[in-house]
Every structure is written in structure tokens, then in C-alpha cells.
UniProtKB/TrEMBL annotation, chains A, B:
Domain DUF1989: 5-170
InterPro entries, per the entry: DUF1989
Name this protein carries in UniProt: Urea carboxylase-associated protein
Amino acid sequence: MTPSTIRPQSGTAFLLKKGQLLTVIDPEGQQVSDLVAFNAEDTAEWLSSGRTLDYASKFLLTTGDILYSNRSNAMLAIERDDVGRHDFLLAPCSKEMFAKLYGHAEPHRGCFGNLAEALEPYGITPDAIPTAFNVFMNVQVDGQKGTLSVEPPLSKAGDSTAFVAQMDLVVGLTACSAGLSNNFRFKPIHYRVE
Amino acid sequence: MTPSTIRPQSGTAFLLKKGQLLTVIDPEGQQVSDLVAFNAEDTAEWLSSGRTLDYASKFLLTTGDILYSNRSNAMLAIERDDVGRHDFLLAPCSKEMFAKLYGHAEPHRGCFGNLAEALEPYGITPDAIPTAFNVFMNVQVDGQKGTLSVEPPLSKAGDSTAFVAQMDLVVGLTACSAGLSNNFRFKPIHYRVE
């Protein structure tokens, strides 16, 4: 099945039914895809970093791990993972972030703006966008010093991570717009639903 | 000024005006207090772990650090800190968490339930409760293995952390109900607004 393409620095949203498999593919390597999810029946239920990290007792999630909602329900299960390094600590890049951290005078709207536009038809407001599961994002953590540093993704061309929906979901997905996250070359993301 | 008391395993909410100083005190030592905040003028703006960690480029926050909202506005500045070890990764303890992680058959509603009740008069719904800034919570992070482990707080009796409000806020604050977080003795939290 031909995958769908998310153009560089853009985003999309779609319905993912319970039991469907979502495969997120990095076609060129070293690209990040921010993923958010909402219960399709009640979009007030959202993918929660804080619940997921608590239940997993770890911040590096990979095959076999479950992503939970704010209501402690399983939303997505990681079925297969070529990369094993993703981030679930940092909020999606945004206009404000590019101004603050990159010093951009005319900042891109980032994954946040792309997600906000893509989710609007589902009745999901910008303020409802939580910390994303940042597929392929490589945030190195120094447990002693407490520092976080964004490094180039470990994903190579064609690598993918696959998720099985545990409930009917609205999923938002991007091809990330932050230079630090993708080694300063904006690339597309591919995805497949089956 | 006599501080206010949050009884063991309970919570409260109050208005904190821009410029006011909130001091969170651990009167007996080794107790955690979950703190959430919302813009008092528009409670759809909330304290965001993901934005804060991104702007700080670290997960250990202390004196001089700023806690940001989902809209990238400064909400609270840490003015003074006796302890230097707090958590901003894990969601508030909850009924579901006590069932899943502790195996409790009749689980306490936890900080989440306490915050939900305390915030309800301000029109803030349970689904709007984000990952809290867990004052005094000691979550050890292994940056290599990716593991998180909840250890007894480093706070001694009388230690405190003080925050200055950067906007008018609704603040929710608890005396934490999770045994692992407070070395299995439920204690009060004191706080002062000035």
C-alpha cells in the first residue's frame, strides 16, 4: 500500500479506528514526526505524557509500550519500532518557541500551528494540544545534571514505528519544522493506516 | 504570617495575583505537593510541562527558572528554593494510578481527584488538569537506560520553595497521596501567599 505523504513543515489529522495499525515512516532519515491523539468519541480525552511516563516508569518508549490518555485509558500500543528513540517530554515546536529558542524574527508556526489547523475540523482547539509523542525525536537526557539536549534523530531512511489504536482516535501528525530536531534539513514524513 | 495548612491527602485551590509570592512549605519533611496553575482571566491557558522543559532545556528546575503556560507565557518564577529537586514529568496520582501501579482494590482519588474538586468552582474540568509541577517530588532519571524511579523527597522539615506569579492565576495545590512519593507517611503541606 502506498503511504501518504506529509510535506516538509506541515501536518495532517485523520481518524484511526480501534485495532487499525498506523505506521509512521521516515523516508529520508533524521526527520521527526509529532503525534497527538484524542478519543474520537470524546475529544476531551487526550494523549498524556505524564500518565504514560508514570505507568511505564521510563521516558524511552518502544515496542510493547502503551501510550495512555489523561483518563488512564490505553490509546496506542507500539507494535514495532525500527528506531527505539523517541521523545515524550517536549511540546511541539511553535511560533513562540522559534522566537524564544532560535531567535527567529518571523517564526514558522511549527508543528503546533500545523496541528492546530489540522485538528480544527475535529473541534479540537489549539489550547487542547498536549505534549506530543515526538516520533524519532532524539532528546538526550543527563539524569545527573538534569539537562535535555536535542540531537539528530537516530532514524535512517525507511525506518518506521508502528502503533495499534486501542480506541477510536483522532490523530494529529506532522513532519517537524524544528531545525535542531531534524539536523537542519526539512524532510517529509510518510504514514500508512491499515 | 501563619501559613495555611493542606491536610494529608487533600488539596485546595486559590487565586494568586500577578506579583504575589506563593511559598510551599514541607512542615515535616519528605512530603510532595502537586501544583497546577491556570490563567485566572482565561482558564484555557494552563501550566505546561512540555513548554517549560523545552524553554529550560532541562528537567530539574530551581531558583531562577520560569514555569511556562501552553501558550508560552511565563506563569510562575521560582524565587527561592531550599530543596532543588522537584518533578515535572509525572501526572498527579489518581484512582486509576493507585489501581494500576499500587494494586489498590479501593484506591484513593489521589492528587488528581483532590485537584479536580478544588478547581471545579473555578470552572476547570478534570480533563483540563495537566501534568503538575510536583514540588519536592524526587524522581530519579537514568538518562542512559531511560528509567524513572520515585524516591523519597530530599525536603527536610521546614524546607520551602517560593514562586512569584507572572500573571493572575488560579493555583491548585495538594498534600500528595502517593506513598512512593512521600516515603509512605502521609503528611500535610503548608503554604503562604503574600
